[in-house]
Amino acid sequence: MLSQFTQFIERIADDHNGLNYDYSLRQASCLTMAKFMILSLKYARLHRVALLDILKNTKDGNIRSNVIISFGDLLVRFPNEFEHFTPHIFQCLSDEFYPTKSNALKVLTRLILADMIKPKGNISKIAELIVDDNEQISGMAKLFFVELSKKNNYYIYYNYVLDIISNLCASMEEVKFQTMMEFLLEFLEKNKNIEAIVVKLCDRIKETT
Amino acid sequence: MLIARFKISLSIIDSISETIPTISTMLISRNVTDIQEAIYFLTHAYKMEIENVSATIPKMLKLILTKENSVIETLIDAFTEIYLNYGGVANEKETQCILEIEHLSKMILKLNQGELICAELLLQKLYQTKKISSMHINILWEKYLTKNSRLEDNRAALIILGMLAPIEPSLILDEKNLTKIINTSLEQYCQDLRLVADTCEVLLKSIQLPQVEKMELFYKLPQNHLLFQRLRIIMVKSIANIENKYWIRMCSKIIKTIYVLAEKPDAIIVNIISQCYHRIYHLVEFSFNHEQISSSQSSQEHNLVFGRIDTVILSRFITMLGDVAVNLLIYLDLHIMKEYKIRQYIKEKKKNSQKSKQNSNTSLISKDDELITPNEDSFQEIIFNTNETVLFGEPYHLLIIF
Prior knowledge:
heterodimer; A: mainly alpha; elongated; B: 18 helices; globular
């Protein structure tokens, strides 16, 4: 039964700028297309690029924020098929529209803390949000790092802190950088570990000079 | 002298009122005693009818999620004091219960989604500790069934009954009660789509997945049950009512209810989709005739049909298809898989009992060693292939593989 309507829904969802179809129609179609993708792997493989195009090209923030949630769900359902889409979700952390930014952060928090994805160098994009102007976003980013520091493997957190320092020390405002680092270093209680970080940082400085 | 006393009383009340925001912050303190003291204070302030305390009471609800038993106990006592020890003028117990339920209903209707979840946990605790009595339950049913009362009162009573359903499913699923619910909330010409959505939510709350080890059966209703007939009629008739903002929520709940409760949900869903489609199609035809456009111009193709209908109706139809897809996935992955596991477990049990009878004198092998694990992988593969068939196969091919 559903197969009869797929093409029509795809065509509406593909109208990124609303030239032919109304906003509510496009929003419903994008969500339905994502739900179809969750149901079928074959359908997901065929239309994942189209969903990414919607995320990149649509000007409507609500549609983008819905697509972000869909990507999160698809990553849980078919992790191998959608793993390489994670950088695009990280990019949405700098979206101008609040719900998109907030949803991207929520989705990434859920995926990283459940070990579904590894943030690697992208962790600094979340760290930047600790000093975001929006209090809710800043609160969510702080909560993420609180939970991340509680996780069993401490070394992973130390390595993340190192990555954050090396990625953001040059590009961020000094005051904001200090506030962010004060928050992140709070979770490194043991002196030995702080010393290890200093040593590693010195090594990195040597490498770059 | 008297006026001076009144003035002092008023200044005390003002002082208490000023402290409420500060006391509220103590609810999230790390110190258990602080939280308990704050609860006591707010409870007494509420009893004294201090002006700004009513808005703080719902904030206390989230404390039900704490791990500290002492806080939970204090919270239960506080809500019992506020809502179930109603210090009204009523002498008779029944009148007092009515007042308590009215008071509780008012609170429930003001809560947001998160607070409702906490309220549900709290009410369940109150029911388990028998602070919500059978008399309260009877009054809730009366409130819900009374047609002359306000719609909001009916809805609040139903929501409270639904909150208690997870620990007492018979409150809703008992045949008599289910019939009452169908005849009250799901009338054929029902206009209150919000009530329909809430009713479906209540039905869903009363259903629990059966446990494999207990060899429980799924609670399922036949395909032609009155519940599904009414839900289908309401959904199809209301799809064109674009003024009602609750249609999408109702649709989502109805589809979920059908997949959870019906014996052959796919047949009912196919019926609903095709009836909604035809209703939309007739609307287009009507608009064509109205505009005196020749009927020969109308095409069977979806594109032309959909090109002329209201976008709200079409968005609803598309949303419905998405909901069907997600619920079908849940149905196959959760319900069908669970059913398979239960059947396998029963088979294995029977096999083992037969074997043990045959070898009762000689067998020294433990029963656990004899259990053969069912081949789940092949069944999972069938479910996976069925998911693919839904979007790429022939229409009406759904679940034929089973």
